[in-house]
Specification:
The complex is a heterodimer of chains A (649) and B (386). Chain A has 5 domains: 130 residues, Rossmann fold, CATH 3.40.50; 170 residues, FAD/NAD(P)-binding domain (3-Layer(bba) Sandwich), CATH 3.50.50; 59 residues, no CATH class; 158 residues, FAD/NAD(P)-binding domain; 63 residues, Alpha-Beta Plaits (2-Layer Sandwich). Helices cover 27% and strands 25% of the residues of chain A. In chain A, strands 8-7-6-16-29 form a 5-stranded parallel beta sheet, with helices on one face. In chain A, strands 18-27-21-22-23 form a 5-stranded parallel beta sheet. Chain A is globular, with a radius of gyration of 32 Å. Chain A starts with a strand and ends with a helix. Chain B contains 21 helices and 1 strand. In chain B, helix 11 packs parallel to helix 21. Classes of the chains: A alpha/beta (649), B mainly alpha (386). Strand 26 of chain A pairs parallel with strand 1 of chain B, so a sheet runs across the interface.
């Protein structure tokens, strides 16, 4: 029991004292047994007040502190630090909120607000009397990270972490690195191609000793907790020997081309978003990394045709499982483009309706003249916000990149081919920041912009070879206008990756948009509620490449800061099992969100045990325990009960 | 349903507009326009129709004729899409669309055709004189003036004037009728017959005063302060030019016998006073507008289509040769008088023949008629509403 307590009642300028009679509060609480000193102060957080509190603690040998001021969200750590500097354990400090929860809330009733303040401060004093000195929990950490996804985001994070001395395991599901970026040709604003960007990153990765790259690899399972995760990875065979490097080797390249020609298996090519076919042995583009080709494990019939031309084919390779031990995860698994439903703007019903990613590949594949399915394309219509900003549907969000991307593609098409007309049928153009330059360029080129709202969506009709798109244009007094087009491009947004098991394995919560969720969009933008698991890039929300790289760098530095010291300090306010009372019913494990409670043997019986490194102190397990065997350190029954008693007395 | 036609932009580019496709529909131009109102909202609507190539919309609209090109819209356009010049070009385009002969389109879109037509008509005048001129007598009148009516008897010339006026009127009136069909009939408005008479004042009043032109200046400033600060200069000079032109045209076509005399009247005789006023108006107007077009300081004079210059140059030569004919005649210089007279008509005739029904001069009819038609439509619409 603390019985030499210092109480400080803050006026917060006049924010509190205008409505709460702080003098009266002080007079009342100073009568409470155990209170050695009670003061009012203009600003408790001011430097001079902090010094005064420290001196009081030292001179009067105070054993606990209460500051009644603003929300603990604002200044809990300020005053915990005051306690530490005064030589007091920081957990002997309790903050009472008499601003947000009192003076501001009851500014019309000052007399009652004062009574409430007396109650709240008395309760704080009652609670701090039972406080215990606590120490943060230190757990060891491995300075190694698993980065999931070797797109631009994962690769950039890998390079950064490796440069800071962390051992990096870069895990890519495909046989080639680069992710979505490698599928785009010219990029705004640098005019570099996606291939160039990927090559630049890959060359750094391959020359970095701290990075191990796994391609064709997938996370299978994860055990352990922050600082000491054990992850199992499944690696599917490439069926090509690693020494088959095509770079600068014309002979090998020719052999590869012949091998690809010879392959009898044809499947739709997801690199080109299924508008073309590819063989089971493949390489998406010449400078793709790693340099050796790959054989599609799933579709290959092992007929051996390719092996006739290419010696490097090796069907002996087997599926492998590898276990790695890392301190943290950085998840950079990216996005999928939205796949329109059949019949959505005639998609999959009328053949000259394609999506934006398909259109971008189409531009990349057509050199002199733009054709689709052997028909010349001159008039291109773009319908925006397909699968985005649906008030009725699943995807309420704006994907943010698509306006810019569609306009960029339209400019590219116009510059590359002759006599192109672009019709942008949009719901308001959102080319924010520098991207506005593209919008301007496109309008100066003579691109036509029509705007519809969600109540009146465009209607697509096929008339002979042509498409007729009917729009109620809100920029022309909602007049119904017709656009005649050879090709309709559906400007699709981003959706979370399909078939991603990562969120199940790592237990990353999903947001309402079904992307991975950060703790706080502004203050903790790359951290998840799972300690040691960071997210970055388009797996988190629709991002463009610039934004992706920014988030991957912050995830890299946050992850490195967490695991590179060799130990991790965790909050001691976690659940604690009383082994005498516990008789293992399992109710607590069922409600635990963090998988932090397990069964152990103790003195011949089964009881629950809390994993210190996993428990977040959320308190979910407390109310379900029949035996009342669980206590939350820092919020023990005694503390909370005395708090309530003081409040109602 | 209207089909979007991006190629229409190129059509309009031929009529002199700078590229307007940078427009992003903010509507700033309409907001700053002193003439735009609820019934006739422009230039944004006109720009939108131009961008989308909605020709039917453009042909049936009155709005371009209600704009007098103060240039506020172009000055404040955040995209520098030059709405003012677009409105001007749409007027040129409309002129060519009202004209059923197709000549207007030819003259507006091809310098070569325009110049060839001028040269051809000048040669016609020249040949007529070569074959049919009267004796080139050097004998002077009792007052010492040249016997111009001997070389070119006013009765013969007047006959020519009437023929010319007949042709001009035929083309111009048929074009106006065409405009009426597109603007009023196509709009499918039921217009009570009496409105055609009650609204006639608008036609006459606006023809002579260009009252709306004056309204281009901000409304909150008073008439007198605008006059003092020179804000009405443009309107006043335009009025001088217009009235001079109308007076001369009336005297030449209607009263040539009174105007082209051998008697040298005293300086205060109405024949000479009216002639001097009209010539003064033309010269001052031509110089004022030419200087503005050369200086390119204010928005409305920044962009000159070649037809703008053709018109000013022809008008200038007509006025100068007219003055010289007058000077040489009263000072008794017969040969110079005759040659100058032929040159004067060689310029005057093509100018009227081309400019009045087919080119820039036609706005003297289209503008007041547009206001007249607009009043008809607006009144009929208000009547329907009530």
């Amino acid at each position: 029991m603390k019985n030499n307590i210092g109480v400080y009642i803050c006026q917060c300028g006049s924010n509190i004292s205008d409505y709460v009679d702080v003098e009266k509060v002080r007079d009342e609480v100073s009568k409470i047994e155990g209170v050695a000193i009670a003061k009012t102060t203009m600003f408790a957080c001011a430097d001079s007040t902090q010094k005064e509190i420290i001196e009081d603690v030292r001179n009067k040998k105070l054993d606990a502190m209460v500051v009644a001021s603003c929300s603990p969200k604002l200044h809990l750590f300020t005053f915990r630090n005051v306690a530490i500097r005064a030589g007091l354990n920081p957990y002997h400090y309790v903050q009472v909120n008499i601003r947000e929860q009192d003076s501001w809330a009851h500014s019309d009733h000052p007399a009652e607000a004062t009574l409430k303040a007396i109650g709240l401060v008395s309760a704080g004093i009652a609670r701090v009397k039972h406080s215990k000195a606590l120490k943060s929990i230190d757990i060891p950490s491995r300075n190694a990270v698993a980065i999931l996804g070797a797109g631009v985001s994962g690769m950039r994070a890998a390079i950064e972490m490796a440069d800071m001395g962390t051992e990096v395991h870069l895990i890519e599901r495909e046989h080639f690195v680069g992710g979505r970026t490698s599928q785009w040709s010219q990029l705004f604003t640098t005019r570099q191609s996606g291939e160039e960007v990927v090559s630049g990153l890959y060359n750094k990765i391959i020359n970095n000793e701290n990075i191990s790259l796994y391609t064709g690899a997938e996370l299978l399972s994860m055990k352990g907790s922050v600082g000491d995760f054990k992850a199992k990875i499944r690696i599917i065979p490439r069926y090509i020997k690693a020494d088959c490097i095509l770079k600068d080797n014309q002979e090998l390249l020719n052999a590869t081309l012949k091998a690809i020609n010879a392959c009898p298996v044809e499947i739709s090519d997801d690199f080109n978003f299924n508008i073309t076919k590819r063989k089971a042995i493949y390489k998406n583009y010449h400078s793709e990394f790693p340099e050796c080709p790959a054989i599609d494990y799933e579709h290959c019939t092992k007929c051996g045709e390719c092996a006739k031309y290419l010696d490097a084919v090796d069907f002996e390779q087997k599926e492998q499982e590898v276990e790695i031990n890392v301190g943290a995860f950085v998840v950079a698994t990216g996005f999928d483009p939205y796949e329109p439903e059949k019949g959505e703007y005639a998609y999959a019903e009328v053949e000259n309706v394609i999506t934006l990613p398909q259109f971008k590949r189409l531009i990349e594949m057509n050199e002199k003249e733009l054709t689709y399915r052997n028909k010349a394309v001159k008039n291109i219509a773009y319908i925006y916000c397909v699968g985005s900003r649906q008030t009725e549907g699943k995807n309420n969000y704006c994907s943010r990149y698509c306006c810019t991307s569609a306009i960029h593609a339209a400019i590219h098409a116009r510059n590359k081919y002759r006599d192109i007309n672009n019709f942008h049928i949009n719901r308001g153009i959102r080319t924010y920041g520098k991207q506005e330059l593209l919008y301007e360029e496109s309008s100066r080129n003579g691109d036509i912009y029509l705007q519809f709202d969600e109540e009146n969506i465009p209607v697509v009709e096929k008339q002979g070879e042509k498409l007729i798109i009917k729009v109620k244009d809100i920029l022309t007094q909602e007049k119904e206008l017709e656009v005649e087009a050879d090709l309709l491009v559906l400007v699709t947004g981003m959706v979370p990756r399909k078939h991603s098991k990562v969120s199940d394995i790592l237990k990353i919560p999903l947001g309402r948009d079904h992307f991975f969720n950060e703790i706080h969009p502004k203050l903790k933008p790359v951290e998840t509620v799972i300690d040691g698991v960071f997210i970055c890039g388009a797996c988190q929300a629709p991002f463009n490449i610039t934004e992706t790289i920014k988030s991957s760098l912050s995830a890299a530095s946050k992850a490195n800061a967490l695991i590179s010291k060799g130990k991790i300090e965790l909050e001691p306010t976690i659940a604690e099992i009383n082994p005498e009372q516990c008789s293992w019913c399992g109710a607590c494990t069922e409600v635990c969100l963090y998988d932090a409670i397990r069964k152990i043997g103790h003195n011949g019986k089964e009881i629950a045990e809390v994993d210190e490194s996993k428990c977040k102190g959320c308190g979910m397990c407390l109310p379900v325990c029949d035996q009342n065997a669980i206590n939350l350190i820092g919020y023990t029954d005694k503390e909370i009960e005395s708090f309530i008693d003081a409040l109602i007395s | 349903m209207a089909r979007v036609n991006p190629d229409f932009r190129n059509t309009l580019l031929n009529y002199g507009t700078e590229d307007f496709s940078a427009c992003y529909n903010c509507g700033n131009c309409t907001a700053v326009c002193s003439l735009s109102d609820e019934n006739n909202s422009f230039p944004r609507k006109v720009i939108r129709s131009s961008v989308l190539g909605l020709e039917d919309e453009l042909i049936t609209t009155v709005d371009p004729w209600l704009c007098y090109y103060c240039g506020d819209c172009s000055e404040t356009c955040p995209r520098e899409a030059n709405p003012g010049e677009l409105m001007m070009s749409v007027r040129r385009y409309l002129t060519s669309r009202y004209d059923w002969t197709g000549l207007s389109q030819l003259f507006y879109t091809s310098k070569i055709w325009e110049i060839a037509a001028i040269v051809f008509l000048a040669l016609v005048v020249l040949l007529l004189f070569v074959f049919f001129h009267g004796p080139m007598t050097t004998e002077l009148t009792a007052e010492g003036g040249v016997k111009l009516n001997t070389f070119a008897p006013w009765k013969t010339i007047e006959l020519g004037d009437w023929i010319m006026a007949g042709i001009l009127s035929f083309f111009l009136l048929s074009n106006i009728f065409n405009m009426y069909l597109k603007m009023v009939v196509k709009n499918k408005m039921k217009i009570p017959f009496r409105f055609y008479f009650t609204e006639l004042w608008a036609l006459i009043f606006n023809f002579f005063s260009q009252w709306r032109f004056k309204k281009c200046e901000p409304r909150e400033i008073t008439f007198w302060s605008n006059l003092k600060s020179g804000k009405y200069n443009y309107w006043i000079v335009h009025f001088l030019l217009m009235s001079g032109y109308v007076i001369l045209f009336t005297m030449i076509v209607g009263f040539l016998g009174w105007f082209q005399t051998e008697t040298i009247h005293r300086w205060y005789h109405p024949q000479r006073l009216l002639g001097y006023y009209a010539t003064f108006g033309l010269i001052v107007g031509v110089i004022y507008f030419s200087v503005l077009r050369i200086k390119k300081q204010n928005e409305k004079s920044k962009h000159s289509h070649f037809t703008d210059w053709t018109f000013l140059i022809l008008l200038f030569i007509t006025a100068i040769t007219g003055i010289l004919v007058h000077i040489f005649r009263i000072n008794g210089l017969p040969n110079l008088t005759y040659y100058l007279y032929v040159i004067h008509l060689m310029v005057l005739f093509p100018m009227l023949m081309i400019e009045v029904p087919f080119s820039k001069w036609s706005h003297l009819a289209y503008r007041p008629f547009a206001i007249y038609f607009n009043n008809l439509i607006t009144r009929a619409r208000n009547r329907e509403k009530n």
